[in-house]
Design goal:
The chain has two helices and three strands. By secondary structure, it is an alpha/beta fold.
């Protein structure tokens, strides 16, 4: 995935964490997280999220329609 610029994660309820390898995709400029569990999204938010370090290099990370279950 050396040319990946945008990634949309839409409704993957079984996914519990962002893959470790995503932190090495330096070409990624936009990550959209939609219809994912609220806990998943919270792990990525700002510096307090435990998986934030994996997406901190991405200029645009957005969240929409995330839910609790």
């Amino acid at each position: 995935m050396p040319n990946l610029k945008k990634l949309d994660m839409v409704f993957v309820p079984q996914l519990r964490m962002i893959p470790e390898g995503l932190k090495h995709v330096t070409t990624l400029r936009e990550l959209n997280v939609s219809y994912m569990p609220k806990k998943f999204a919270e792990k990525l938010r700002a510096s307090e999220g435990e998986d934030f370090y994996k997406v901190s290099h991405i200029p645009s990370v957005s969240f929409s329609n995330n839910y609790s279950f």
